[in-house]
Design goal:
Helix content: over 70%
CATH topology: Four Helix Bundle (Hemerythrin (Met), subunit A)
Largest sheet: none
Number of strands: 0
Number of domains: 1
CATH class: Mainly Alpha
Order of helices and strands: HHHHH
Number of helices: 5
Radius of gyration: 16 Å
Shape: globular
CATH architecture: Up-down Bundle
CATH superfamily: Flagellar protein FliS
Structural class: mainly alpha
Length: 127
């Protein structure tokens, strides 16, 4: 059983590595948004179920992704758009931390909705 789980995890890691190696910078950001949405949704479910370990893991993942998204911003070339995205990421970070602290699934749902809006806007941009 444990070997099967390890094999699945290794396969998933290899699949992710392959997809990221072949992805354009635009697609990499899209993948980060997808992972962010997944982590936030899973954190919301974990809060509703009272699964503190999963909640912590998923919130930590979401915060790491938000950090990655923010560190990818180019303020010299992006100007006001980069500044707006930085503010949005800061808001999402604050809401995610507060939701985790307070075990507030509604706040996580609101953060997920806001992140989904950013992801949808990103998908409208074609490189």
């Amino acid at each position: 059983m444990m070997q099967a789980m390890r094999a699945r995890q290794q396969y998933a890691a290899i699949d992710t590595a392959t997809r990221t190696e072949q992805a354009s910078p635009h697609r990499l950001i899209e993948m980060l948004y997808d992972e962010l949405l997944s982590a936030l949704r899973q954190a919301e479910i974990a809060v509703e179920r009272g699964d503190l370990g999963m909640k912590s893991s998923r919130i930590s993942r979401a915060l790491s992704i938000l950090h990655g998204l923010e560190s990818s911003l180019d303020f010299n070339r992006g100007g006001p758009v980069a500044e707006s995205l930085s503010s949005a990421y800061a808001y999402l970070r604050q809401e995610t931390i507060a939701a985790g602290r307070d075990n507030d699934s509604r706040r996580l749902a609101a953060a997920t909705e806001a992140a989904a809006g950013l992801a949808d806007a990103w998908r409208q941009i074609r490189p």
